[in-house]
Design brief:
alpha/beta, six-stranded mixed sheet, 14 helices, 50% helix
Length: 300
């Protein structure tokens, strides 16, 4: 089996035609590191090259699926880092290249000719929802949560899959509010294929996976290509380009820079609490004034 630092992949012992790709950083709620997107792609490529594998189940170890990017340290630090260029004028192409690479790595789950199923317990939020939505099918526990809270400030989902999965009205509701929804609601809205009690999540997911795994690989691939082509024709790639550019802007405009300065001064947890509380987020000149105030005691 291939060896990775952030995840594991192997055929299921009881269902050899099904591979389990397990995000494996449970101590950090499987938060996304610099290595994880690349390793997801490499794991998918391994499964693609294994003729015995027909279906890939993507899951998370520990308490949840994936809590998003591992940002606490970088958001609070006062050092330069690739996704928040501040010591020199922001170069949007550098930012775009970095985030687009991550998007393409996540999208390996969508492009793979073998069906992928996201099995979600706990939380699949922020960047973790990007991983889940790149899978072909989603099975959730009733009490699991999915959403992209950073749409309120400091983020735009670069995979842009929400509209293609939900339709424009539901997608706008989640993007405008940054709200999360539970598994029951996700199934009702058509985002999840099904939602079941947590103690039935494993059996429901594997029943679906094994039903699909009995279909010849060529047939699965052809049907996936046909459906994916419809989404491509709707403008998926162009939409992802725009979303990835906007993601960079959202981290470097006055509101995004205010969020980072607030996290640096008061901690990432406090910044998240403000963002998710529904309190008005400083914008425009108010944000610029707050940036100056919060930067006045910059330890550097």
């Amino acid at each position: 089996m291939p060896n990775f630092s952030t995840l594991t992949i192997a055929p299921d012992a009881a269902a050899p035609r099904v591979a389990r790709l397990t995000l494996n950083r449970p101590e950090r709620l499987n938060a996304i590191t610099d290595d994880m997107p690349r390793e997801i792609r490499e794991a998918v490529e391994w499964a693609e090259g294994n003729d015995d594998i027909h279906v890939i189940v993507v899951e998370g170890a520990g308490k949840g699926f994936c809590g998003g990017y591992d940002l606490a340290g970088s958001a609070e630090s006062w050092i330069e880092h690739p996704c928040q260029q501040e010591s020199f004028p922001w170069d949007p192409l550098v930012d775009y290249a970095r985030m687009k690479r991550n998007t393409e790595d996540f999208m390996s789950l969508w492009r793979c000719p073998k069906p992928t199923i996201a099995k979600i317990h706990g939380a699949a939020v922020a960047g973790g929802s990007d991983i889940a939505l790149c899978c072909d099918l989603i099975v959730m526990a009733d009490d699991a949560r999915i959403g992209y809270m950073p749409t309120r400030v400091w983020g735009c989902p670069t995979t842009a899959m929400w509209t293609f999965k939900l339709g424009p009205s539901r997608a706008k509701q989640l993007m405008f509010t940054g709200d999360v929804i539970d598994g029951r609601t996700a199934a009702e809205w058509g985002l999840a294929n099904m939602s079941v009690p947590l103690n039935e999540l494993e059996s429901a997911t594997m029943k679906l996976a094994q039903r699909m795994a009995g279909v010849p690989r060529s047939h699965l691939a052809m049907h996936k290509i046909v459906v994916n082509q419809v989404v491509q024709n709707m403008g998926l790639e162009q939409t992802q380009t725009l979303a990835t550019v906007f993601d960079g802007i959202s981290r470097h405009n006055p509101e995004g820079l205010w969020f980072r300065r607030y996290a640096q001064r008061h901690g990432f947890k406090a910044a998240i609490e403000w963002r998710d509380s529904g309190r008005p987020i400083p914008e425009g000149n108010e944000a610029r004034e707050e940036i100056r105030r919060l930067s006045a005691t910059d330890p550097e």
